[in-house]
Give the backbone structure.
Amino acid sequence: MGVYDTVLIPCPRCGEKYKVQTKSGKCFLNVYDLYDAPQDTLGGVVAHAPFTCEKCGNVFTVYLNPIIR
């Protein structure tokens, strides 16, 4: 059994939260909102795109702007 984190992504059409499991990052079985997730965890979210909302059927993708330090 693997360990992962879950990121909740709101559908841009209806707002329903779509659950994406990712093995990127530290993977402590945490659940994050898209806007609160650590940067290293978000890398795995983009790899799973596109997403289809289970409530309204909208197909969408998540794009990330990296933070440059």
Remarks:
- Helices lie at 39-47.
